[in-house]
Design brief:
With 426 residues, the chain is of the alpha+beta class. The chain has one domain: Cytochrome p450, CATH 1.10.630. Helices cover 48% and strands 10% of the residues. The strands form three sheets. The chain has a six-stranded mixed beta sheet. Strands 5-11-10 form a three-stranded antiparallel beta sheet. The longest helix is centred in the middle third of the chain and has 32 residues. It starts with 6 loop residues before the first strand and ends with a helix. The structure holds protoporphyrin IX containing FE. The site of protoporphyrin IX containing FE has 25 residues, from helix 4, helix 11 and helix 16.
Length: 426
């Protein structure tokens, strides 16, 4: 890597990850390094733990509103592309100040109402269903057949919908985050229809679910805003939760000390998750904050309008915090006004899922050498494409799956029509 050329975050990710890249960038540039998100699209990557924390905690200096990015205001990047380098949507994630408070309050207050004990039982039921589908074969891909579908099925349950809808949403979400841009565009439109349909259904028939609770919130979001809020919950939760589960399973399968400590109950499942969030972060980099004025960070002069990327993985490898030890001070759930409003829910989902695999799959081992495990080609997320495993074949524990068809009366709205179309094309 040339010291004068910005590091290319769009380059293929080596199977061992990018730790070495972060280390070299830190040696050359210190706490902040110039990078390219795409050829000719510049950004700053924050490598230091304290620099990352400070940017997250200072929203008056660093905005979440990507429309203020100089690449956008100068017309070089179009945020309305279905899959731009950085995106913008009318939801809490991209808002600042009072607008952020207005859009976040219904989301955060609805998430607080989720009963974690009951949800843990639901997660276990869903995990058991997923395991039942492959347990007799003695082999599985724990990403494609378990970690990826599970979070969206749980979320769908929290939206008050049966699993059949969750499978459709999971398929759409997988295409959304997949590599095929043409199918991705179609998935963006369908995901939007899904959430618009969900909101109009809940207007007619509210229930004890996330969308109905957001609808009843004193913030009085419009239906358009509610659809975006419901989509945000899905999009913000799906990939990090799936990769937290996947990375934790990978750690258990490849790190004998961790596996033994967990098996001997010296490392609880919650401590195991924290260990993985320090060492095998589900996000390597989080997009983005936009500097609102000229500011100096480390040895770099940042100009107003520049984009700053939160370097989770690099921050966790910062020698300044490595020496201080671990615990829960990792940045994985963010910090400041945008900090994840669902960290306890995310922990519950991941812990229950990992425990289900541990309890259900005896003799679990990797089915390929560890060096053959490939990371997803993303500048932001950090998780495996596949996790092929072998185990002692077992018996399903759940009664044969209910066909789970929606009631006849539900076959008339947009959401049900989408489901019928999805079933025909599946
Ligand atoms: C391991 C799982 C998860 C991780 C690591 C994670 C991490 C994060 C992080 C870092 C942010 C801050 C983004 C920023 O500052 O720009 C965030 C925001 C958010 N997360 Fe999570 N999250 C997880 C799971 C979930 C789940 C399960 C949900 C919902 C069910 C959720 C809902 C949200 C929402 C709505 C926001 C936006 C908050 C705002 O902008 O005000 N997350 N999450």
């Amino acid at each position: 890597m040339s010291p004068t050329r910005p590091a290319r975050l769009y380059a293929p990710v080596p199977s061992c990850g990018r730790s070495e890249l972060w280390e070299r960038l830190r040696e050359i540039h210190g706490a902040v390094a110039p990078v390219e998100l795409e050829p000719g699209v510049p950004a700053w990557l924050l490598l230091g733990y304290h620099e990352n924390l400070s940017v997250l905690q200072n929203p008056h200096l660093f905005s979440r509103d990507t429309r203020q990015w100089r690449e956008v205001t100068d017309g070089r990047v179009d945020l309305s592309d279905s899959r731009p380098t950085l995106s913008w949507r009318p939801n809490a994630l991209y808002a600042d100040g009072p607008e952020h408070t207005r859009l976040r309050a219904p989301v955060a207050d609805a998430l607080v109402r989720v009963d974690l004990t009951a949800t843990s039982r639901t997660v276990r039921r869903i995990a058991d269903d997923l395991v039942d589908a492959f347990v007799a074969t003695g082999r599985a891909d724990l990403i494609g057949e378990f970690a990826a579908p599970l979070p969206v099925l749980v979320l769908n349950h929290l939206y008050g919908l049966p699993d059949s809808y969750g499978h459709m949403l999971g398929d759409l979400t997988a295409v959304l985050f997949g590599a095929d841009a043409r199918r991705g565009e179609d998935a963006v439109a369908r995901v939007h229809q899904y959430f618009a349909g969900l909101v109009s259904r809940k207007r007619v028939r509210p229930g004890p679910d996330l969308v109905s609770w957001m609808m009843a919130h004193p913030s009085r979001l419009s239906d358009h805003e509610l659809a975006h809020a419901a989509a945000l919950i899905n999009n913000a939760s799906h990939q990090p939760t799936a990769h937290l589960i996947g990375n934790t399973l990978r750690t258990l399968l490849t790190d004998g000390r961790v596996r033994t400590a967990h098996a001997d109950a010296r490392l609880s499942v919650q401590d195991l998750l924290d260990h993985v969030m320090w060492t095998d972060t589900p996000f390597q980099v989080l997009p983005a904050r936009i500097a609102l004025q000229d500011v100096r960070i480390g040895d770099c002069d940042i100009r107003g309008g520049d984009a700053l990327l939160i370097g989770f993985e690099a921050a966790h490898q910062d020698p300044a915090v490595r020496a201080a030890g671990g615990g829960r001070a990792h940045l994985m759930f963010g910090a400041g006004p945008h900090a994840c409003p669902a960290r306890n829910l995310a922990r519950t989902i991941a812990a229950t899922a990992v425990t289900a695999v541990h309890e259900r799959l005896g003799g679990l081992s990797l089915a390929v050498p560890p060096r053959e495990l490939r990371l997803r080609p993303s500048p932001f997320l950090r998780g495996l494409v596949e996790l092929p495993v072998a185990f002692t074949p077992g018996e399903p524990v759940q009664p044969a799956a209910d066909p789970d068809r929606p009631r006849a009366a539900e076959h008339t709205d947009l959401l049900s029509r989408l489901l019928s179309r999805w079933r025909r094309s599946a």
